[in-house]
Amino acid sequence: MELTDQDTLLRQQLFGPDFTWGVSTAAFQIEGSPDADGKGESVWDTFTAKKGKILNAAHARTACDFYNRYEEDIDLIKQLHIPNFRFSISWSRLLPNGTGEVNQAGIDYYNRVIDYCIKKGVEPWVTVYHWDLPQILEQKGGWTNREVIDWFGEFATLCAKSFGDRVKHWMVMNEPVVFTGAGYFFGIHAPGRSGIRNFIPAIHHVVLSITAGAKILRKLVPEAQIGSTFSCSQIEPATDKPRDVAAAVRADALINRLFIEPILGMGYPVKELPILKTIQKYVLPGDEDNMHFDFDFIGIQNYTREIVKYSFFTPYINAKMVKAEDRKVDELTAMRWEVHPPSIYHMIKKFDAYPQIKSIIVTENGAAFPDVVNEGKVDDPQRLRYLQNYIRQVLKAKNEGCKVNGYFVWTLTDNFEWAEGYHPRFGLIFVDHSTQQRIVKESGKWYGEFLSEG
């Protein structure tokens, strides 16, 4: 595949030799085999079985069959010259009952994955928790039950002791505002709970669990780099009217600040989100001292921007997103998200402004488009252009002195995209889910060539 003149302006060497490049995945979205080798049920196993929860009644019992095909997929990572592979550990594969008895077969599986990565010269980056809480713990209240801090600590301890001798880069949790908001407030993700009475305690218990997990990793794997990842979107007001501007400030506090600020020792953004005053009900003596941690890096995950206007009818924040299609934007992804490369630049700048953050890694960025196989090839110029333009914005931020030190594409293979099922294809590699055939897309070939330069 030839690089165009514009492509040659974007060169991997411009980022310097210490910049980290990779690709990201998550256990539930790729592994399949939900019953294999003693694995317990997760909240997503339960949720996907409920009628009407997943687009086209899709399920993840096979997904990308990574459980059985991990060698093939790691070979593809190596073939594409991708040096770092981010994946997550299934809690219920290691601890089928959430706590207590360890499933050695689960440990053995991830040992095989990690060892094969190392054999192929691919560095494993491990996310401890990527949304798949054991169902048995959800039945005890899940993230609304304060005991979850200890449950998660047990899981993090097992991960550190089992894999810490080889895994040197850890992320404690993935996108807490998404799994608490979608899962415990809106009810559109597992476990399907809704309402502020579920959301508020879940927020506080997740914050305490992130820092508790980080402290466990620091103690047990002292030489490791420890981070956690946070979704973020550039937020802009629909107009310059004061009430739209104020609504955008509230939306920004909810989407971009709710978890990172307490973890940095700044407390919750109560001034902008007065509903957070109710969180005090769940704050026990000593909590404020245990809510923050000195992370080696922070992962940020950006895809788009959001335009916000005032809304009397939206409870708690009085702010409403203006849908991208209603704004008649130039380009939409299959997720109906606006393609807006400057958003990643603005979010790097925003997180860089926190003096407590030592290093920023873009741990997810990518796009879904309706890919088609034609004569054994998948030509995906929209995704290729998306990646190039977003990566250019990362370079712009880096050149301006921002401490951004890595970039991971979401994602390796077309996978199970939660409530959207298999409709959105984010992968660098096309997967025919009826046969599990893999085809490297043109965007994947470009990324591989980009990473192999020089």
UniProtKB/TrEMBL annotation:
<feature type="binding site">
    <location>
        <position position="29"/>
    </location>
    <ligand>
        <name>substrate</name>
    </ligand>
</feature>
<dbReference type="GO" id="GO:0008422">
    <property type="term" value="F:beta-glucosidase activity"/>
</dbReference>
<feature type="active site" description="Nucleophile">
    <location>
        <position position="364"/>
    </location>
</feature>
<dbReference type="InterPro" id="IPR017736">
    <property type="entry name" value="Glyco_hydro_1_beta-glucosidase"/>
</dbReference>
<protein>
    <recommendedName>
        <fullName>Beta-glucosidase</fullName>
        <ecNumber>3.2.1.21</ecNumber>
    </recommendedName>
</protein>
<dbReference type="InterPro" id="IPR033132">
    <property type="entry name" value="GH_1_N_CS"/>
</dbReference>
<comment type="similarity">
    <text>Belongs to the glycosyl hydrolase 1 family.</text>
</comment>
<keyword id="KW-0119">Carbohydrate metabolism</keyword>
<feature type="binding site">
    <location>
        <position position="174"/>
    </location>
    <ligand>
        <name>substrate</name>
    </ligand>
</feature>
<dbReference type="GO" id="GO:0005829">
    <property type="term" value="C:cytosol"/>
</dbReference>
<keyword id="KW-0624">Polysaccharide degradation</keyword>
<feature type="binding site">
    <location>
        <position position="303"/>
    </location>
    <ligand>
        <name>substrate</name>
    </ligand>
</feature>
<feature type="binding site">
    <location>
        <position position="410"/>
    </location>
    <ligand>
        <name>substrate</name>
    </ligand>
</feature>
<keyword id="KW-0326">Glycosidase</keyword>
<feature type="binding site">
    <location>
        <position position="130"/>
    </location>
    <ligand>
        <name>substrate</name>
    </ligand>
</feature>
<dbReference type="GO" id="GO:0030245">
    <property type="term" value="P:cellulose catabolic process"/>
</dbReference>
<feature type="binding site">
    <location>
        <begin position="417"/>
        <end position="418"/>
    </location>
    <ligand>
        <name>substrate</name>
    </ligand>
</feature>
<keyword id="KW-0136">Cellulose degradation</keyword>
<dbReference type="InterPro" id="IPR001360">
    <property type="entry name" value="Glyco_hydro_1"/>
</dbReference>
<feature type="active site" description="Proton donor">
    <location>
        <position position="175"/>
    </location>
</feature>
<dbReference type="InterPro" id="IPR017853">
    <property type="entry name" value="GH"/>
</dbReference>
<keyword id="KW-0378">Hydrolase</keyword>
<dbReference type="InterPro" id="IPR018120">
    <property type="entry name" value="Glyco_hydro_1_AS"/>
</dbReference>
<dbReference type="Pfam" id="PF00232">
    <property type="entry name" value="Glyco_hydro_1"/>
</dbReference>
